[in-house]
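re: that chain from earlier
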Amino acid sequence: VNYSENAFVTGTETLPYLNIIIGKTNRRAYYCMGTGTTALFFLYQVQAGEEDTDGISMAGAISLNGNMIADEKGYPAPVSFAPIINKGKIQIDAIAPFIKTIGLPANKMYRSEDSLSFIVTFSKPVFVAKRDTVFLALRIGSQQKKLAHQRNQNLFQLLFSYRIQTGDLDKNGVSMGTSLSAADNSLQDSIGNQATLTYAAGL
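^ sequence. v structure.
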């Protein structure tokens, strides 16, 4: 908040704040620094799961919360300003991509050199930072296999595959775990939200 002259924040241990609306939720951006200058800074830390695609809104006043903002002579500074409605350039997307479905190989008997393909579909586009950083765990009989991400089918889908090796045997059906594994920051959406890697147990 910019003033025409130096502004001083004094009062209780509580902090003044700005009321902002993210999506349909009211949040508070609390004063954090700037007393004695012409610019007072207010901070809000975006929470996981928050989204506002048409821009945040802001009520037209600083809530003093038991404090005082004044000039150097002690006269109260104005705290009202024109409300900011749908500031479209300030958008929020803190929603992590999550796994919606996993496409499985056909139900049949496979033999050596056949391939098992698994297509993991996410709720939003995801990007793999580099090869051999994202894996799907597969159990064949008593053997644990680690299937590396092969390629993207499209922006939403990752393909994992395994070629049957001589000696592989599972007459009860192969099984998966409940989570992909990924190196830090290796699977995320276009703005850096880390993908949720867990999925319902199945096969």
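The longest strand covers residues 2-11.
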